[in-house]
Amino acid sequence: MTGALQLNGSAVDASSIDGPALRCLREDLNLYPGPPEPDGESTWVLHDPLRNRFFNLGWSEFELLKRWSFRDPERIVQSVNVETPLRVEMADVQALDQFLDSHELLLSDKPPHIAQLLKKSLERQVKPSHWMLHRYLFFRIPLVHPDRFLSATLGYAKPFFSRGFRLLLVFTIVFGLYLVLRQWSEFTETLDYLFSFEGLIFFALALIVAKCLHELGHAYTCKYYGLKVPAMGVAFLVMWPFLYTDTTESWKLKSRRQRLAIGAAGMYAELSLAAFATLLWSFLDDGPIRSAAFFLATASWIITLLINTNPFMRWDGYYLLSDFLGVQNLQDRAFAIGRWRLREWLFGLGEPPAEHFSDRMRRFLIVYAYATWLYRFVLFLGIALVVYHFFFKLAGIVLLLLEVGWFIGMPIYRELKQWYDRRQMMRWNKNTITTFALSAGLLALFIIPWQSHIKAPALLEPDLHKTFYAPVAGRVLEARAESGQAVEQGELLFIIASPELDYELEQVRNQIHIHRTSLGRIGTRNLLEAREVIQQKLQEAITAYQGYREQMDQLQIRAPFSGEVVWVEDALTPGRWVSNELPLASIVDKRSLEVNAYVTEDQLGGIRQKGEASFHPQNPKIEKVRLEIKEIDTTSTRSFSESPLVSVFGGDIAVRENADGELTPQTAVYRVRLGIDGADLERLSHQVLRGTVHMAGDSRSILDRIWLKVSSVLIRESGF
């Protein structure tokens, strides 16, 4: 690592300077050579040790700082223009002076400067509400100051930086994966254990070990290149904990390869752990040690691939990409380019870009900025929903709005404010006309009440339908039902014989006979107590006999209503044995065909009772059916049976199974009963069809529907 450069030379007498003298730089600042820009231009890093902050400087800023001790802007400009190929102006000196002043890098030894510092300090004081907000969303807790420990133990870690270890690691990965592939089915079966409660506990422990090793990888690599590691600890992002290591001193490194090594060290350590754990798993017998090796392997591989390589958040993947491209503060600079490009597309302002990059790099930064925005929108919206469900109702709503407002709403608000500030620059051109037309179209789409139809999942089925089963397992004596046969109420369809039931009935009949005979023989007063016992047994036997007789009567299966036999079990001939779980036949009343649709709470109030309605079957070969609304339930449907409309059977109504095994809808739904036009009854026959009902409703805009949905959720969840 190259040492720090001297910033302050011999001071110049301020009295010899015409005009205001520049303030001196703080004497504790250090300047380090930085990595070259992609175009080969040199860079430098200015270090503020008081706050441990680093500032990236270009060639012109470096030459100006070298001459800052002149304290005369004109002399500094003249010196740079004469002694270097650069051409700077007074505006460059003023811009650098403002930059140094805003970051408090200049000496403040006079009352006006001290007063200015105090004013800035007061402005930076965070209000209690803002302090709580920032601390809730993100905060760090440094746990240890490991620099002395890392220096003392660096010798033990140096072998892991050797070429020999890298070759060993490559061999371990290849050989370990080869052995696992030979036992792949056994390995994946162990993976199923990961999703059990005990498996999640072990996975969490393995994850802690892997992440500790990850942070040690960053820390030891910093020490290997001669840097300090001031702190290691735990940080919280929306109350989600993760470990961190302060590697900000990597800014001092001139070599981009060394910076990349520090950024990749954590993943390198985790993948090394995973590689050796994977190899070890193949040689161990089943038991706790093998399970531990499995969890170390899977935790390291999974977390490294899913989280650490992600370039859209400030994890290792982001810093690796930043160092690889040679673009420090990658996201801030990409966002600035992305916002500039967006304004040009929308308004054609003709502003120069925030920074000058090559066309290829600029296109990449724009794509990266938009991809990051999209990723963060989905991520933060997901975090907000998790927070909403994690806390009790009212707190969940407040925190959800806080998350959405801070992470999604605030960036949008700041960009809209920039548009407003540039309103004087906007002129009618191709871009603004296109933007205005699209905005007006989208606004009209949201606020004009053009949607007047209500769609709801529905099921077309007969209201009267019955599937027959044998009351008990038995043998078919007669099968009179045939498919397509018209039957009248009470007509005999099947006769089933049950030898087991016959036997039980005969046994009970014999018991009745025995008990009655015993009662006839008891005549003395001494046997009155025995008589009461026998009478009780006789009554129990008679009751059992009546129950068996009722079951015998049920063996004669009759039609409960007039209708048509629509289906009969194949080969249901006399003599065939059937179980009580085998369906024998089904009949329906065609005249009772109806459609049951299920609407949400916000759709309920907009249905027109006398409006048009139609059923659109899921099967495209069947034409739509005209309907009329017969009844709308005023209370929500509490549970469903095995309906094709629910999610567990592939339907659109989301349900969950409660403790009693019932399928209850996750959101309130209301049944709408609709009748079918007589002309369609014969065409649809006995079919049970899944589809969608279209009903005429009050015209509502998309914005109105969103507001009704949001307000209903707020009222329901907050308990208002």
Could you characterize the architecture of this molecule?
The protein has 21 helices and 22 strands. It is α+β, with helices and mostly antiparallel strands and 720 residues long. It has five domains: 14-124, no CATH class; 137-326, no CATH class; 344-447, no CATH class; 465-585, no CATH class; 589-718, Elongation Factor Tu (Ef-tu), domain 3 (Beta Barrel). Strands 7-16-21-18-17-22 form a six-stranded antiparallel β-barrel. Strands 8-15-13-10 form a four-stranded antiparallel beta sheet, with no helix packed on it. A four-stranded antiparallel beta sheet has the order 12-11-9-14.
Give descriptors for this structure.
alpha+beta, six-stranded antiparallel barrel, single chain, 5 domains
Strand content: 15-25%
Q: Helical proportion?
A: 40-55%
Globular, elongated, flat, extended or rod-shaped: what is the shape? elongated
Q: How far apart are the first and last residues' alpha carbons, in Å?
A: 64 Å
Main sheet attributes: strand count, strand direction, barrel closure? 6 strands, antiparallel, barrel
Radius of gyration (CA) equals 40 Å
Number of domains: 5
Mean pLDDT: 81
Looking across the biggest beta sheet, what order are the strands in? 7-16-21-18-17-22
Number of helices: 21
Extract low-pLDDT stretches.
Answer: 9-17
Helix and strand content put the structural class at alpha+beta
List how many beta strands DSSP finds.
Answer: 22
